[in-house]
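It is worth pausing here to work through a concrete case rather than discussing structure prediction in the abstract. The textbook approach is simple: state the sequence, then state the predicted structure, then interpret. We follow exactly that order.
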Amino acid sequence: MLRMGESLGLDRTKILATPALTDTVEAIQVWDNICQQDHWVEAMVAMHGLELIANRNLRKEGARMHYFDPTILETREVTDATRAFLREGYEADVGHSEEALDLAAKYADRFSIVEHVQATFMRSIDAFDRYLMARLERGRQFESA
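Step two, the predicted structure:
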């Protein structure tokens, strides 16, 4: 949010003083609760599973579409700062997601918690959807400021 606001010309102090949106707070609480209260494998899949949005191989696994369209990194639809921010995460997430999920699958099976891990993944993805929608809302607020 800091980079996005600054790329729109907003003062860093103002951005940091802006209270988080409810959906942002609630998403972070979901992840915090998973990491503090659930099995470590569930925490791992909750966080690293989010990296699947950048995985180019999802189509090969049967997904109909990608959550993240990498063509945005090549167009002029967004600012240079936004592209740099997205590229950094995208490139890192592609490699991380498969390794982390292989480990999660291995240990979920070993500890006989596959269904718990799958349910936790779904909770995390739902929280991530709300988190991203809140970021879009905050971006619109910043643009109109």
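Step three, interpretation. The chain has a mean pLDDT of 87. The helical segments are 2-7, 12-17, 22-37, 40-48, 80-110, 114-144.
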